[in-house]
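Obj: model holo form, ligand = flavin-adenine dinucleotide.
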Amino acid sequence: MMHEHYVIVGNGVTANAAADVLRERDPNARITMISDEFHLFYHRFRLPAFLLGEASESSLCVRPVSYYRERNIRLRLGQEVVRVELDRNLLYLKHMEKVGYTRLLLALGGKPHIPEVHYTYRHRFSTFKTLDDARLLRSRLGSIRSIVIAGGDLVSMRFATSLAKTGRNVMMMLASEAFWPLDLTETIREECIRSLTAKGVDVIDSDRIVGIDSADEQNFEVRTAAGLILPCQYVGAFFGWRPQVDFLVRSGLDIDRGILVDEHLRTNFDSVFAAGDCAQVYNPGIRNYWVSIGWPNAERLGRVAGENMAGGALEAGQAPQSALEVEGIQACTSWWREHGSE
Amino acid sequence: MDRNERIGENTVNREDLIVKICGSAGDGSISATEILNRAVASMGYHIMNFDSFPAEIRGFGKSCGHTRISKNPVRTPGDKADCLVALDDGHSISELKNLKSNGIIIYDSLPPSYRDEDTAVAGYIEPGMIGYGVPLRELSTEATRSAKSRNLVSLGVIATLFNFDPDAFVRAISKRFSGKKESVRTAVLEAFRLGQIFTSEKISKRDAIDFERKAYPREGEYIIISGNESAAQGCLDAGIRLYAGYPITPATKIMEILAKKLPIQEGVVVQTEDEISAVGHVLGAGFSGTRSATATSGPGLCLMSECINLGVMAEIPMVIIDCQRGGPSTGLPTKTEQSDLRIALYGASGDSPRPVIAPTTVAECHSLAMAAFEISDAYQTPVILLLDFFLSNRIEDIVPDPEGSARWGRFPDSIAKPGESPYKRYRITPSGVSPRSMPGTPELLFTATGLEHTENGRPNYDAANHKTMTDKRYAKLDALRNAWSLPEPIGDAGELDVGVISWGSSAGSAIEAMEILRERGFRVGGWIPRLLMPLHEDALEAFAARCRCLVVTEMNHSGQFADVIERVVHRPILRIAKVYSEPMPSDDIVRIVLGELS
Ligand SMILES: Cc1cc2nc3c(=O)[nH]c(=O)nc-3n(C[C@H](O)[C@H](O)[C@H](O)COP(=O)(O)OP(=O)(O)OC[C@H]3O[C@@H](n4cnc5c(N)ncnc54)[C@H](O)[C@@H]3O)c2cc1C
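Output (holo structure tokens):
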């Protein structure tokens, strides 16, 4: 009998939740997870705590490698998918290997977004999404006195206040588009500024970055439209995330700001599913797509995707409607759970 | 480093690195390994290189260079590698089992086309391992217009990644290609350079191995040679004039070397029709007073046993080098084993005493080969020198032995002079050694016979004479035992928790295991005789009396040396006797001993 070969691209919460369900539903199937990160599945939301030395690296790890071995799940870490041929059920890996599947889940997450206006000096921005990013910044932290945070997405709020607490000079340049997929309403914005300022963050409002100069790899000068020059040792890009779908362009997949999936998380290819931060999920109730964001939401969608790949017909449901506290403000995104540095 | 970590396979030792370069035959993995050896040895590091060979020796199989580099003297090639350079994905996949679970894989990130699922080595990188993708083929083609210098590109990667002095590599590569055209030399150096540049610009290092570009200056001369080369040099330095042999793995190399070098010192190499003929040649040469040798492996030694017996009975000097391999019969030609001990010690009809010597290192292959000739001449007897596949083929950096055979002397007294009448070729003496004559010397008739004989060489079947002559032949072993310096125990003095006894090529693993056990707080000593027949039994008993737990380690199934030891010490022994086919892993010894002690 031919067994299914479920391939999951990604090793975040979405991917792992889906793999668990698939193994439960189909004990004999081949399951392969592919991720371009080298690390075992880790708690992304603890990265700020790790950065500040409040959490150890080992405490970030969600499951040991034995977890996968016991469940006969093959982990291909540090391996990037660079191309797909979905009509031939083939993935192409960067190290020049083809991998076939019978069913595929794209659980690609999002990647830090840097708006095009900053294109010419984009390499001077640092991003903070992965454990490698956090490791690098942690190793440099001792020599960093001033930090400019550009954007101001959900992650940046706690990032900024935590760093301010350590006595560093933290300057935050709020950009409204950073809140995507949420709306940064005027009320939220004002509340944010007030709260951040109270916690020692120097918020620079109604201005924007027009250039970043650097004398060396360690020291930068951020230039603003209003003529400010902000010397610092770290310029963080926190303009929110965009689904990580560049390599899927021209694959035949329907993509908007994320991979478009129906309410069962199936893409326009029958055997291909997408879930988590990379997907735009159709909601028949509102007859529109919504974008997933946040850990609990990704986990839930991962399980739904797993069920449906194994033959189920669960609906992803609506984006939950409860609210999130951003710096003490209720933001209209309940699906972002506030994780402390547990 | 905390040596306790060494028990597990995942060790991070900053200046101890095991590299495997794996490809198809023709991919240059062995020559890259040679260059690596030379480069790091010139920086003062010690190396032990032991390449693995395919089971069948034929064209296009796997070819895998394995080298261990350390700032301390290297006793074993180590078990699993820290770094695997994959010049061929298919072959390298089969080598992954020999890579540490936190090992590094350097692979070609840009082969000419996509490979099918599970045929790319990078696809097997397990969590915890580190993969460095390098466009080996592309960089090679850029430098030399051919993919063949992928091996040199990979050396550029290794030098940069682990922080070795690149100039040492440039010198080693230049030397290797010194016979080639200038344009070729420039191109291969460019291949190395592109590997360096790629690594420093494109690879972000994620491993912890760092040699800090340090050099450890050496005092005096060193050479990089294999056990077989060392033994062959020992034959040359002992002044042999004849080598007769029949090719057999892993001994053939000795004949190949001597075929080139022996004629220079007016000697002759004869490739005979079989091993019986080879040993017959050696016997004949010994009879006529010419130093000669043969080298073989287990199956050949079986065939030679009758002639060796004749040598024992007729008291003719001859040296037989047995490069052991997996057995019995034709067995495992390219695998290592120490299972010819029994046949070397006792393989004969009748009571047939013959000295057996087992070197433990490449350097000893030289010094003990020379000693074998001296003993053979001095005691007028066949001598068996026991190497094995691992010792024959492993390459080490050694300090050449300037003393040569001077240590032994020639026992000129045993050569008879005319006028000693009546001349008795087999005269009974306290040492058992009788005055030897050269055939054809007037008045000194050398009667050589396989029949039992009297002192003057006449056949005689009288029981009393047979006893006298048998005693005489065994007396030579006693004389040799007294002349040979006592094997010095190593390690801790006084009472010991563990006493490790080993021999031959696996002695290095035993010593390494001892070091680990000592660092774990045990009192450990070792007894590693080189002269296995006759054994220094008193010294052995004295050592054994100090040990709470007595261990014998060797690479055979039945514990051939342990049997010998047990007969002397009359007490239970922990036998670590295994056919690994590969060099004995020291971790295994440690694990078993710890299990026994707990
Ligand atoms: C610093 C930080 C703090 C956060 N804090 C919170 C919080 O407090 N609360 C909360 O609810 N959420 C938080 N989040 C968001 C939450 O972590 C994400 O919503 C969630 O991780 C999304 O999971 P995912 O599995 O969809 O994607 P991801 O976790 O992004 O995983 C995607 C995976 O896909 C892999 N991948 C992508 N493309 C490829 C490719 N081409 N080939 C191979 N592999 C590929 C990536 O390497 C990655 O492993 C935080 C995120 C960050 C970065």
